[in-house]
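Before relying on records like the one below, remember that each one covers exactly one chain. Contacts with other chains, cofactors or solvent are not represented anywhere in the record.
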Amino acid sequence: MSSSTAALPEILRGEGLPEFEAITPEAVSAHIPQLIHELDGDLTALEQQLGTALESGDPLSWSAVMDPLQRLGERLRWSWGVVSHLNGVCNSPELREAHAAQQAAVVQFGNRAGQSQVIYKALEQLQQQSAELDGAQQRILAAELRDMQLRGVGLSGSEQEAFNSASQELAELSTRFGNQVLDATNGWTLKLSEREQVDGLPASLLDQLAQAARQAGDSEATAEAGPWLLGLDMPRYAPFLKYSRRRDLREQVYRAHVSRASGQEGSELNNWPLIERILTLRGEQARRLGYANWAEVSLAAKMADSESAVEALLEELRAAAYPVAQQELEALTACASRHGAVEADDLQPWDVSFWAEKLRQESFELDSEALRPYFPLPQVLEGLFALCSRLFGITIEAADGEAPVWHGDVRYFRILEGAQAGSSAGTPLAAFYLDPYSRPGSKRGGAWMDECLVRSRRADGTAVLPVAYLICNQSPPVGATPSLMTFEEVETLFHEFGHGLQHMLTTVERPQAAGINGVEWDAVELPSQFMENWCYDQATLMGMARHWQSGEALPEAEFRKLLAARTFMGGAATLRQVHFALVDLKLHSQWHPGSSQSPEELRRQIGANTTVLAPIDEDAFLCSFGHIFAGGYAAGYYSYKWAEVLSADAFSAFEEVGLENEEQIRETGRRFRDTVLSLGGSLDPKQVFEAFRGRQPSSEALIRHSGLVAV
């Protein structure tokens, strides 16, 4: 840290690892206005310098335009980014209020910078000198000009005022949407006091439910005797649906989950009005920018060429998945009927997880819960790190205590080049925080990777190494028992680490194109989904799956069952993602306030051929669809399937050389690192993929991996 920044309040520092404890709600309220004021002055000074240069006709340089613009943006990203990060992982009423109070000023400054005519003209002039720029610079410049156009630089007068007002309102609505989902999730619990109410639940879930009861005030609660506190967070909700033999309780918790934040039963937490308002404002913003709808705005910055190209891929996957999903539903119904539990025509959504697990156990003799003891988090991390060493030639080591953290659960790791195991003699490349466990009261659900520091060079030429936030919501430890992971949680960790690898292993030093920056949204899931495939690689899985108490390796037969069960319910899983993607796309291209249908009615219409089990009347999934209403996936949810085509095809390069062919695997891994993980946004993703694969992508591998082709 430089001496000039050391004296600043933490929130204004704009560089280095944050001192999280210093970023209090009071600090946010006191210092974000100061930050915005300073940035506003810096922007004015930059505009004056560029305006003078433009008037004189002097040629502009990258260092005169892009570097100061980037430094200005990075200071805001760092400061407001830390506040937003803490709002997601350490949410409190006080922090939420402080965040909400400053959000309008942050959006207003972003609009001002994005609509600066002087800066836009300077960028245009710089682009005219493109012969002097390398390929990465040209891509960065083109993206910046496009983004300024999408931020309304071409608007003026009342149109620009309306655009800016809508931008502020959209940011506020997005935050409110996410907060209401969090509050609705936290606000529902069900206390179970009778042993027969927990019939069928595995020991690990009973431990969690008893721990939740103790945290809620039942200090005597035990896994054996209860009481047990059920909630809607995924580590409690999902396994309850999967294992509870009490169909009535499964129905109760399912109905509560799918109706979250929908205003049902008199709740004030109602996201329906927010959904219509968000969609309305996005449509208006699109038309102000000269687009027909928000889907067109979204696709302007994506890898996919058009809405029709997206629909073509989704239809290809839907057509392959639908008949398979129908067969899967018939198989579940038959299984339930064999057990005398459900009439042939009475399978309900709250039955699906339960009977899918029963059928999976019958078909493959695979008990998901019995696998947990083989996947304690420390061993899974060892296996993940060993895989990264094998494929990419890096060493990952614990560095706990070397960086401030925001919670006692959080760990800190370093990535080194060329280090030997147990030695820190390698060259530092990057670092990351890992926050693995669910904390329903203060941490939003899901899993994500975010940027703490981006690879770049300071003004004095010294390097800034990338640092990532890796956030999961897996089952926490209980007492002396470590976090014993489900196989799905193992896959989630590998997924998020894939995002982290692209951020951390970039070799691009221009921060606008380093790591995930500048990567088209529908290509950015490539590394994450690619890493999930290694959970089914024998060397990787068997290298990390050992019983946490006995140290016994996962039996070979269990691995074979996992492999055989990989595509179990694959039709339903694919169809579910296609349904979400199409609903998102159509809401942002077809729905408008004068539509004859509500957003929910449009969703149900689309569901006619993208679901095989109709949603119940209370199903208000849209009210918790945070990806598109509180995240960055608006008219972009299809990106998961688009990028999965890329990731499956990329993994097939390893399959083709033979997963047991160690030399070829290492060579292919290094090529993946040198292209997909290294080049970031410095090159068009089609070119990056071709540099790795030698050709353009094909969906064949994804359809095969998903089990949607007849053998």
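Strands lie at 189-192, 228-231, 394-398, 411-417, 427-437, 448-453, 456-457, 463-464, 467-474.
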